Request: fold
Amino acid sequence: MRATFLYGANDVRVDQIEDAKILKPTDVVIRTVVACVCGSDLWDYYSKTPDTVGVAKGHEVIGTIETAGADVRNFKAGDLVVVPFVASCGYCDYCQANQQTSCRNIEYFGHGGGGACQAEMVRVPWADGTLVKLPVEIDSPLMPSLLTLSDVLCTGYHAAKSANVQAGDTVVVVGDGAVGLSAVIAAKKLKAERIILMSRHESRSNLGREFGATEIVADRDEAGIQVIRDLTNGDGATRVLECVGTQSAIDLSIAITRDYGVIGRVGAAQYESIPMNFGTVMRNIGIYGGVAPARAYIEELMPDILEGRINPGKVFDQTVQLDDIAEGYKAMTERTAIKTLIRF
Reply:
């Protein structure tokens, strides 16, 4: 099978490797229908030290089951499934509490050799605890939107849930990538009254408005802080959704949060600490969030897609075949694409 590997900064290749196979009786092997490139894939794409051994890439995928292990009870060959970005057992205390990203038996895609999810076939551990069956055909036009359930839509929703977005809230979304745009969808679903998207890119801000943003702020740093203050009677927002992961993004989020407000942070943190000096602490600001338990949210969010209330698949503004995946990484790095879909 063919699979994607990163060998160094700006060096993505598609290699021919051994087909994915069942390693444990709780595994399935799927044949990929659609996959994609994640913004978090770009962090090491920017900076990885060159190596003769590539790192398997990808953690978002929809596919059909080729083979199921002997202990798999809920799925069979031919089922079309969406795969959350980590594999979870489904029965430990964390899984039972819908905290699957802390599963005591967690497994990650691409670790331990072989391909990850930007590949023609994928081994999925803990199939019964991980997978969700899709009630559509593989040629469904909903496929891009359903793929967002693997990560970005659920991650944006986790930001909103972590910030405890309530009806009537004023929400600021920091970040206009696929996760930030998904956070706009989430804030609207939770009935926020105002959703302010911080975006400097016209195509992204236009999509943000389509998804439910009521206002767009292009300024950053002190200028951006002042604009948000002006828009909120000098107070700041009750809820801020941090969907970037940089030091400047978390600093900005703290500065624009109202006293007693909450930040829901889901950006893959590229900083060592969150600045919480005396003045900030005394403002009673809450910061909550982290890696999203996508499996916990999929069945809640899927009906909104199936019934046409949301169309998160619009974050995919570039489509490539697997052999051209390097173009997808390049376009996302250069911000000429929001998110790249890979069709097989």
